[in-house]
Amino acid sequence: MATTPEPSSRTLAVSGQNLWLWRQEARRSAVEADIPVAEVDWLLQEVAGLDPLSLRLESFKARSHIELRYPLPVLTQLWQRRLCDRLPVQYLVGITPWRRFSLKVSPAVLIPRPETEYLIDLAVSATGQSATPQLDAGQWADLGTGSGAIALGLAEAFRSATIHAVDYSHDALAIAQLNAQQLGFESRIQFYQGSWLSPLASLKGQLSGIVSNPPYIPRDELQQLQPEVRDHEPLMALDGGIDGLDCIRHLIRTAPDYLRPGGVWIIEMMAGQGDTVAQLLHQQGRYCQIQILPDLAGIDRFALAYRQE
Predict the structure, then answer these.
(1) What's the half-sphere exposure (Cβ side, CA atoms, 13 Å) at 40?
(2) Phi–psi pair at 22, nearest 5 degrees
(3) At what angle do helices 38-48 and 72-80 cross, to 10 degrees?
(4) Spatial contact of 158 and 140, defined as CB atoms under 8 Å apart
């Protein structure tokens, strides 16, 4: 498992000129390795505290010293891991932005994607459009919580709700709990180790909503993923079985027993799975108002349904 060096306990400084030279070389190497050059500046924002404007204008170059989280040689070693090992930059620094949060991440958890942010917006919209009262003040579940991103997003959106976050991985739960503590949501989110809804048996028939970004990549397509994903992100969070729908089928089958009448069911899925997921929801017989919804790129990415009254 990849590890990120611990920041030094003492202040580390480098001149703006030297950091500018480092940035120039890192940007050149990014182009050669077919890595987005924007990742260099994202890295410098995190390890040097530089803002996007000073990086764009290169005004930091005139500063006599800039404090770093790591010595410059260590920063170079980290960047080499990005280039040679294709280690995601988020794992390099151990954090990633998501919605309005800065989340701790490691190779124990999937890196939260920008498109997944829309799950929270869909949950808010679904409660607003529902005739069922007080869905936003009830019990919500985030299944396969990983870094805790969805649970945190739900806790922020639904201030009177209790969020139940489940993951099979102890290591993932440790990171999710740390994120909840650091962002001040530890009293609003309860964490459970286990498989999908099984730890929540005491909440059957009570959940206002279930939200999940489950594994949905067909197994024979895993090796075709980018090396950043294939070689570093947790396989458990990616492998959806032969057709990519194993976990989604399970959630469709089991969720009605846990949702209250009128409760909301929302998942993220892979492009091309929408028709099958809609058919599975209809066949289950306990869902209504089934919708397949696109992401910002127009790709069918989300499925939303309500438990029948």
Answers:
(1) 23
(2) -60, -45
(3) 140
(4) yes
